[in-house]
Write a structure and sequence with these properties.
47% helix, 3 strands, alpha+beta, three-stranded mixed beta sheet, GMP Synthetase, Chain A, domain 3, single chain
């Protein structure tokens, strides 16, 4: 059983790594957000937004980038789930990859 302090540290560590990765995704017109993190089970859920929804390598970004970094740096992470925000039309998403995407402050 995790203490509240350890649980908070794990959540903080995940959030810090997500923030570290975001600029790389944003440079291509997308964004990376942390949807949820369960410090007890080790399951992390993330979402790619912006131009990522029309990008052919979105799944590779999630598996070879985000998942690899999270699992490599946080030994308690057991699974990384992810998806893309496909609420935009293909045309709008494509234009974001041309530099039109400005992440909304959180």
């Amino acid at each position: 059983m995790l203490s509240d302090q350890e649980r908070q540290k794990r959540l903080s560590d995940v959030a810090g790594l997500i923030e570290m990765m975001r600029p790389a995704v944003q440079a291509d017109g997308g964004d990376l957000i942390l949807v949820s993190a369960d410090p007890d089970s080790g399951v992390i859920e993330v979402a790619l937004q912006g131009s990522c929804s029309s990008c052919a390598i979105s799944s590779s970004t999630l598996q070879l980038g985000v998942e690899r970094i999270l699992k490599g740096r946080l030994d308690w992470v057991t699974e990384v789930r992810g998806g893309v925000d496909d609420s935009l039309s293909f045309e709008d998403s494509y234009m974001m990859g041309k530099g039109g995407y400005v992440p909304v402050g959180r």
